[in-house]
Write a structure and sequence with these properties.
The protein is mostly helical. 71% of the residues lie in helices and 0% in strands. The chain has 14 helices and no strands.
């Protein structure tokens, strides 16, 4: 009986916390099918009538889909590059012995402690000299290495038994083959976790893209949503349509998480699939 009561209390507490966490998302989705007046009424959770025309109008008569496409292109390409560069550096710091390896890794990790805004000016100047401002190439090139990804993948790689690496080398495998044919499959959860977290961060990025892109055709979703829907945009303070646009922006992230949640949870729990 005590165990049953304790289990019921835990489930109740977790359910309440889950509802609190999901409520903003639920409010946004419900607001997308309300009138603007209903969307601003805190006492009205559900709409009297479902107004799907909000979503239809935003989809057909706004550049939102262009912003979503821009964000998907930049986020997907950048994430793929970050995974490759992160895996290569993590492999070097884990399995390749060279003088000053630990010192170099410490320096790399020390850069992670810098606030991102401290790098904006030198990065902006570098892109300007290369002629990459106001372009997707500039956004991708300036974010092609993730310090967090190096740290996460190195932590997973260190769990791989050294005997497995030595056996692969004895069979004639080079470092590239060991990384992608042996290390990557057994640490897949960490790769998926890093990829998903990187993609979400890049997809929702606002500050850095807003500094180097001024052409509306190059806007990512966060810039586009603010510029077109809020800051003197087409819909001004029509919050029902703003919520409709926000709901449509979140859909790709929900789809991605639905397909990767198993590996993502395993990666966060530290279960990389490596057995001793």
């Amino acid at each position: 009986m005590k165990k049953t009561i304790g289990k019921g209390i835990r489930h109740t507490v977790l359910t309440i916390i889950s509802l609190i966490m999901v409520f903003p998302m639920l409010w946004m989705v419900l607001g997308s099918v309300k009138t603007s007046k209903e969307a601003m009424d805190p006492t009205m959770i559900f709409p009297n009538i479902i107004h799907l025309e909000n979503i239809i109008e935003v989809f057909n008569n706004s550049p939102l889909m262009k912003y979503v496409a821009n964000s998907l292109i930049v986020a997907l390409i950048t994430t793929a590059i970050q995974i490759v560069t992160g895996a290569m550096l993590a492999y070097a710091f884990s399995f390749i012995k060279f003088k000053g390896r630990n010192l170099l890794f410490g320096i790399v990790m020390a850069t992670y402690m810098l606030p991102s805004c401290a790098t904006y000016i030198p990065a902006y100047v570098t892109l300007a000299k290369m002629g990459l401002l106001n372009s997707k190439a500039g956004l991708i090139f300036s974010q092609c290495v993730s310090i967090f990804g190096i740290f996460l993948l190195r932590t997973a790689f260190l769990q791989v038994p050294g005997e497995l690496i030595e056996a692969a080398k004895l069979d004639g495998a080079n470092d590239w083959n060991i990384l992608w044919r042996i290390i990557m499959p057994v640490t897949r959860s960490s790769f998926v976790t890093f990829g998903l977290m990187s993609f979400v961060s890049l997809y929702n990025n606002y500050m850095w893209p807003s500094l180097i892109t001024k052409d509306a055709d190059q806007y990512l979703v966060a810039q586009g949503l603010r510029s077109f829907f809020i800051d003197d945009g087409a819909y001004g303070t029509d919050w029902a349509k703003v919520m409709a646009g926000s709901t449509m922006i979140v859909i790709p992230l929900l789809i991605l998480f639905a397909f990767t949640q198993k590996w993502f949870i395993n990666g966060l729990s530290g279960d990389s699939g490596v057995k001793g």
